[in-house]
From TrEMBL:
It is found in: Cell membrane. This is Permease. Keywords: Cell membrane, Membrane, Transmembrane, Transmembrane helix. GO terms for cellular component: ATP-binding cassette (ABC) transporter complex. It comes from Fluviispira sanaruensis. Signal peptide: none annotated. It is a multi-pass membrane protein.
Length: 445
């Protein structure tokens, strides 16, 4: 028993230390690969150092979820290769240690890493997303306060509002109170890059109030007794309008009746809406300036498991035919994938041990090639399963079972192949008592 405990301590020490080193290296590489997409966010932020640290907090849990399982697989294989090269593996074989007992500590580490990965995916990741959103809110509030202090002025058009690059905005105030909280004769023009015309808001009076939005400070721009004007592309084509309104549209005698009407501008509809009160959250309006990755769930990714399940139940209740609703299925898949990746971690160290049992006289290139194939098989099975689910071919719950089943199948194939191609004569005795009892592993004459 004491000897086996020594084996467990030896493997645990080496696998844990290697897993830590490999995780740190892979995480650093992945974080550096992700940072360029946040370049605009970093350079536009008022405090770059604080923003960088908060960005790391936001990225790290997602990276950790991917790198820890891969690191554990690599560490288990490398430690087993090292033991085979130093003849330690052969010594343990000759002492009667079974392959299942040899894989006991890697399996225990797999369970521990699975639990840590589950905690990271279900709790740490939502927490980091919440904190990052709060941080963006605080940054945006600073921009809004700067706009209020330096931009708002009366009797002149204001075109230097620091809004999103994809939106042009113009403001005009006929009269502004001394504390910049009351306005008269307000004009606001907004033109997204996707639109051809400005949408215009005109109101007789307006006010600016500091309030709370989900417990966070916000500035609400209120407009009273106003009108909104917007132009949109007409649903009717020019030939249809000419046909339906012959008295309004007519051709000059000098224009041929067979003229190609596609040469004329596309008709536009003017939409006029009168309103009594309109509230605009300035923090939400300017928040797009600090936009990072968007998620499908519209903020549901920052919910803890209990809250997310409640959110999912509401989505299902609102969609009676939810099994054929792609958006609901995507939300369902999100939480299942958060569980599926950590669950698969349980089997990776066993695969690493199976791959690492090698003849020390041979090159070890095949081990690393096999590790690459295992990683490819894991994530490609998840991707294929996801596509089949989104096409309503299989049940969403398949995401929990397909990846682990793929890894279990790989373990069985590796053990069967290694039994038929043993690295040494001692390996047969090493596995005979455990595996020959299973017909799948019995050698054929």
């Amino acid at each position: 028993m004491a000897v086996l405990q020594k084996l467990d301590r030896l493997m645990a020490t080496e696998i844990i230390s290697l897993t830590f080193v490999i995780t740190a290296s892979l995480s650093s590489i992945m974080i550096m690969g992700k940072l360029p997409r946040y370049a605009d966010f970093l350079f536009s932020a008022p405090e770059s150092v604080t923003t960088f640290l908060m960005l790391l907090l936001y990225i790290f849990p997602n990276v950790l979820k991917l790198t820890v399982p891969i690191s554990l697989l690599l560490a288990s294989a490398i430690v087993t290769i090292r033991m085979a090269a130093d003849r330690e593996l052969e010594a343990w074989m000759s002492s009667g240690v079974s392959i299942f007992r040899f894989a006991a500590m890697p399996t225990f580490l797999g369970i521990a890493v699975m639990l840590i990965s589950l905690f990271s995916a279900l709790f740490f990741e939502p927490y980091s997303t919440q904190q990052f959103n709060k941080f963006k809110w605080i940054q945006t509030r600073g921009v809004v306060e700067a706009v209020l202090a330096n931009t708002i002025r009366e009797k002149s058009f204001i075109d230097d509002v620091p809004s999103n690059e994809k939106v042009n905005m113009s403001l005009y105030f006929q009269k502004v109170s001394s504390d910049k909280s009351e306005f008269k004769s307000v004009f606001m023009g907004i033109k997204p890059a996707t639109e051809s015309f400005f949408s215009v808001l005109v109101s007789e009076t307006g006010s600016l109030k500091k309030t709370q939005n989900y417990g966070l400070p916000d500035y609400v721009f209120s407009l009273q007794d106003g009108t909104a004007y917007a132009e949109r592309e007409s649903k009717e084509t020019l030939p249809e309008l000419v046909k339906d309104h012959p008295k309004t549209f007519y051709f000059s005698k000098s224009i041929s009746a067979k003229i190609d009407m596609s040469q004329f501008p596309i008709p536009q509809d003017l939409i006029v809406t009168e309103f009594k009160d309109m509230d605009i959250s300035l923090v939400n309006t300017f928040k797009s300036k600090f936009k990072t990755d968007s998620t499908f769930s519209g903020g549901a990714d920052q919910l803890y498991p209990a809250a997310y399940i409640q959110f999912l139940k509401q989505q299902i209740e609102n969609s009676p035919n939810w099994k054929n609703d792609r958006q609901v299925i995507e939300k369902y898949l999100f939480i299942l994938k958060q569980v599926a990746v950590p669950l698969s971690t349980l089997f990776l160290p066993i695969i690493g041990v199976c791959l690492g049992i090698q003849d020390p006289r041979r090159k070890q290139y095949g081990v690393y090639f096999g590790i690459g194939l295992v990683i490819f098989a894991l994530y490609s099975s998840m991707s294929l399963c996801q596509q089949l689910i989104l096409n309503f071919i299989i049940s969403p719950l398949s995401m929990l079972f397909v990846p682990p089943c793929v890894l279990i199948f790989i373990i069985l194939i590796l053990l069967r192949w290694r039994l038929r191609h043993p690295p040494s004569t001692g390996f047969i005795a090493f596995v005979r008592d455990d595996l020959f009892k299973i017909k799948f592993f019995t050698k054929k004459d």
